[in-house]
Specification:
Elements lengths: L1 E6 L2 H8 L9 E4 L6 E4 L1 H5 L8 H10 L3 E3 L3 H15 L6 E5 L2 E5 L6 H16 L3 E6 L2 H13 L6 E3 L5 H4 L12 H9 L5 H5 L3 H7 L2 H10 L16 E12 L2 H22 L1 E12 L9 E12 L2 H15 L6 E9 L2 E2 L14 H17 L39
Parallel strand pairs: 2-4, 7-8
Antiparallel strand pairs: 1-6, 1-7, 2-3, 5-6, 9-12, 10-11, 10-12, 10-13
Helix pairs in contact: 4-5, 10-11, 12-13
The structure holds a DNA duplex (18 and 18 nucleotides).
DNA sequence: TCTGGGGTCCTAGGACCC
DNA sequence: TCTGGGGTCCTAGGACCC
């Protein structure tokens, strides 16, 4: 049996951990650039705020409803997430971290699953301050479903064990709420009279494959209790690394775009080194706002390395070069980003006939840089080309302190 | 004025090969 | 009238997830 442990309203809960005065108060968290609402506390949901609502449209209502509004603080959420995941490791070594706020646990061999799940829930809340829900079932899709029931149904108190594909519960779950069934598939299924998880579970998987695809077929089997989605104890080999941001204001100067792209390349390098992978290619993309009137432009350029790299100078060099290939003067750019692809681990690196044979010096430099930045805070040491002034840097006007990752932001306690 | 960021997997179609 | 068959690899785009 698998348990899905899911943090409730994760970002909003993180903001509340160090602000106990906000218990019972409505909270929303904004996306990067304070663009739209991406997390809401239970109280904010009850007031009718929707996921993805544009902030500038909700602004007046939020003010009127006295909602506490936060810019997203990923340093805080990432660290709180790590605490939750580490805590889950106390219950079983078999933890499959699925996202920043969810993990599957393999509970095979455990006795009283309900009691055990309640213990997990209680402990995580006590140790981290983050409330969680636990759903237990034989497959990942059913565990997701069980978690939903644990969270939403009165009387379940955040824990629910679903022994198998029980009709009484599957019939109560709308098709669009099944994990893996999105808007498009949901629309098609409804038109065929498939309205609930139960309806879907009763279809013939082979027929579903013909009419839809393997993904939906797997979902059907998972709902029937046959596990098709593997449990990944070790994180799977990453396919790509992306860093992109919208600008605070529109940017048309090439120098500023160069700074931005250099900064994103540095971040991508840190991520790559953190995962121990090297990139074969780097792609830079650039676009104007899809909403604004006026000329629209969107383009990307890719540069392939003779030998896979992950050191920041090499990434910045190529990113700069790629940017020059797609930059058009006279446009108001809204966003830029970079993507590292063709990721390989050290052992899979293919040596180039032409590249310099010894890279140990570069690696040493990067290791020192990463270590300093880890210890003394991000960007303690950084590349000059990524800019100092950064007028384009995203707006985050309601940022909370980095309580757990920055010494100067530690919470004060008065006694 | 103002609308997120970062991922995965699958499929279809084209290029190319023998 | 009718123009092989079987493969691989790559890319773009769609759908989905949090």
């Amino acid at each position: 049996m698998l348990a899905l442990v899911d943090c409730n309203n994760f970002y909003a809960s993180c903001e509340r951990v160090f602000r106990p005065d906000l218990r019972g108060k409505p909270i929303v968290v904004l996306s990067n650039n304070d663009g739209c609402l991406i997390a809401r506390s239970a109280e904010a949901k009850a007031l009718g705020y929707k996921m993805g609502e544009a902030f500038f449209q909700a602004y007046r209502r939020l003010d009127r409803d006295k909602v506490y509004v936060f810019s997203s603080n990923y340093a805080l959420y990432g660290d709180m997430s790590a605490r939750v995941m580490r805590s889950l490791g106390e219950f079983t070594p078999l933890v499959d971290v699925y996202s920043i706020d969810e993990a599957f646990l393999d509970l095979s061999g455990f006795g009283d699953l309900d009691a055990h799940s309640r213990d997990i829930k209680r402990s995580i809340e006590q140790w981290t301050g983050i409330p969680v829900s636990v759903g237990v079932a034989p497959t990942k899709t059913l565990a997701k479903l069980a978690n939903r029931i644990a969270k939403k149904w009165p009387g379940k108190d955040g824990v629910f064990v679903l022994e198998g594909p029980d009709e009484r519960y599957l019939s109560k779950i709308e098709i669009g709420d099944v994990w893996g069934i999105g808007r498009q598939t949901s629309k098609q299924l409804t038109s065929l009279g498939v309205d609930t998880a139960l309806d879907l579970a009763q279809l013939d998987p082979r027929l579903v494959r013909q009419k839809f695809n393997v993904v939906v077929e797997r979902t059907v089997r998972e709902l029937q209790g046959i596990s098709c989605i593997p449990f990944d104890e070790v994180p799977p080999h990453p396919q790509n690394i992306m860093v992109s941001r919208g600008f605070k204001n529109r940017v048309s100067e090439k120098e500023q775009l160069h700074e931005a792209v250099a900064l994103y390349a540095s971040r991508a390098g840190e991520k790559a080194r953190g995962k121990n992978v090297y990139a074969t290619s780097i792609t830079v993309f650039l676009r104007t706002s899809p909403f604004a009137p006026g000329p629209k432009y969107s383009n990307a350029a890719t540069i392939t390395y003779p030998e896979a790299v992950n050191d920041t100078p090499a990434l910045i060099r190529a990113a700069t070069q790629a940017l020059d290939m797609i930059f058009r003067p006279g446009l108001d750019y809204q966003k830029a980003g970079i993507m590292l692809t063709g990721l390989v681990y050290e052992a899979e690196r293919q040596a180039s006939m032409f590249a310099a044979p010894d890279t140990s010096k570069k690696e040493g430099l990067m290791a020192v840089m990463d270590k300093l930045n880890d210890r003394y805070g991000s960007e303690t040491l950084r590349m000059a080309s990524s800019g100092t002034n950064r007028p384009w840097w995203m707006a985050r006007e309601r940022l909370s302190p980095c309580y757990t990752t920055r010494w100067s932001d530690l919470a004060w306690v008065r006694v």
